[in-house]
Amino acid sequence: MTLHATLEAGARAFPDRCWLRFEDAAWSYAQGNAVAEKIARGLVEQGIRPGDRVGLLFANSPEIVFCY
To answer: Are 7 and 19 in contact (CB under 8 A)?
Structure first.
């Protein structure tokens, strides 16, 4: 099972349960799934397709988890 599939399943099963904590912030499964899907839609709108490679450069932050 992929990380994305696990996140989607968690969002369906327990949407309000905490999925990610970073410093003073926290995201539920539903919130994390919504952010990940928003990023995915943006990539598709930019022309990214399955099999394409995308480079990511982040400092230590929750955004890298959403993008992964």
So the answer is: yes
Residues 40-63: tens digit of each pLDDT: 999 999 999 989 999 989 888 898
Model confidence at 32, pLDDT cuts 50, 70, 90, reads: very high
Cβ contacts of 45 within 8 Å, gap of 6 or more: none
User: By the 8 A CB rule, do 36 and 4 touch?
Assistant: yes
Contacts of 15 (CB under 8 A, 6+ apart): 28, 29, 30
Token pair in block for residue 24? 């003073």
